[in-house]
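Comment thread on ticket #2218

A.B. wrote:
> Attaching the input chain for the structure job we discussed in standup.
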Amino acid sequence: MAAYTADAVSLLVYLVDALPREADQVFAEAEAGETVIETPSTAIAEVLYSVSRDKDVRGVSLTGTPEDARQALVGKGPISVAPVGDAELAEYAQLLGEFSIHDGLIVASHRAQETDAILTTDGVIGDAGYDTIWG
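C.D. wrote:
> Ran it. Output below, let me know if you need it in another format.
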């Protein structure tokens, strides 16, 4: 079964139903149980923080509570939480000079979990040679 790593931006765009076609297809497959989307616990925390601040995503204001978002993503949604453990931190330690904290933890999780690609809008990750899905 295919597996993907999602960053916080892709999760926020999913919550407002504004994903581009290719990413939307991956999320639809995950909703149907045909594929797996994992996200580091740090990215889930970023999403919950954004929801608590009513952040605007793609022209849509996030509403609801952080718990509503957690349920939509993890509780009843297509996302599996990938804890940031020793394997992820070991990968992250190798990436410190290459990425921001956010991107580094996404790439570290992708590498540690050996997922097929990363769901992200971030060109820096793709430019570094990692397979990404967005558009």
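A.B. wrote:
> Thanks. Noting for the ticket: The longest strand covers residues 36-40.
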